[in-house]
Amino acid sequence: MCEALYESRSQIALSLDELPKKWYNVVPDLPEPLSPPKDPEEGPSRLDLMKGLMVEECLRQELSTERWIPIPHEVQELYVQAGRPRPLYRALRLERALKLKRVRLYYKREDLSPTGSHKVNTALAQAYYAANEGKSTLITETGAGQWGTALSYAARLSGLDSVIFWVRSVYDWKVDRRFFMQLLGATVYPSPSDRTSVGREFLARDPHHPGSLGIAISEGLEYAEAHEGAAYCLGSVLNHVLLHQTIIGLETMKQFELIDDEPDLIVACLGGGSNFGGIALPFIGEVLEGKRECEFLAAQSEAAPNLVKGEYRYDFGDVAERTPLLKMYTLGHKVEMPPIKADGLRYHGAAPIVSLLRHLGIVKAVAYPIDERAVFEAARLFLQSEGWLIAPESSYAVRAAIDKALEYERMNEEKVICMNISGHGLLDIPAYKERILGLS
Length: 440
Hints:
- By secondary structure, this protein is an alpha/beta fold.
- It has a domain at 3-24 and 72-116 and 242-437: Rossmann fold, CATH 3.40.50.
- Helix content is 42%, strand content 17%.
- The protein has a 7-stranded mixed beta sheet, with helices on both faces. Strands 8-7-6-9 form a 4-stranded parallel beta sheet, with helices on both faces. A two-stranded antiparallel ribbon has the order 2-3.
- Helix 3 (56-62) crosses helix 12 (239-258).
- The longest helix is centred in the middle third of the chain and has 20 residues, at 239-258.
């Protein structure tokens, strides 16, 4: 396609009629079977615990081997209410700022959701199924706060209450996002909290414990178990979460078809794997079928480089060992990870699906320093060229995409890179001030 047409299509939009009607399940297309979750050798059954706490339809989807799962009409309507389909952009101004001649950059706009991130894609589905099953309250954990906000939003639209256990180190500085959740009707607790035995145990050791997603998950599960009518919802890692997020990649594939272009590399940040899996899995499915060639890069923090330095083995998903064992790349569920501003990336394990693909060499990963200056500098360049303030987590994807683009340019290779912008940074201004301006 000629450069003139590229220039005229900096935004590639889909019509409402082009909204995907099914989610894509990569499980039946994987090169080898996905190792199932299992119970530890000792103690009560964690699998039975999850059956009692999670939404039944989500559990069915978790174990499904069907390639395509229909999106209920009501969920499609909720997606439209939340602004789907979302546009794909050609990053023309960023290309010019980087002086790229042979590399084209695109980015998918998941930051345009009502809560500012991709997390609503699964939150709306989980809340819909929970309401249909007669649940009254949704309970969850959150790291950066994007998932907690998304579930608060989805719960309210489905007429449900919500309780959020939020990693304390982020709860303390993201005051506006906390109020956003409360404005949606959520009850929000800093984790570790005094609401659970798990939380009290950590607070007894350290009253100022910064918390972690592993601790918050443990608290949420304990709290859900003690409250009738509650359902525990997870925002990343599990198969059904990645399934719901494939709406991102399915839309992106259609958008590239509209402009007769295709990506050579897809880049997204990765903590547990929801936004990475969401954009990458539909493309990976076609790579596995031999229909296209494409590479996939996960951008991580050295605070939690599970795909870079983790071991591929069974491990618990939480600190208190209440979850089943999952086969994944893990740093160990007891590992202590330093707080970072992109706290959505601070988790000890990666999604089993993404982990298997990493194990097979289909997914690659890179980790950036804990001081985060490099990624925040990339975000500032993105803001000053493209005009959008992105989430700290998304900054990792932009940093990795820029680094790869410059590498391709040096090698004189013509390439197309697609980034997933998982969220906006409008509620992360204090992080930008600290990382870029050196202000507290």
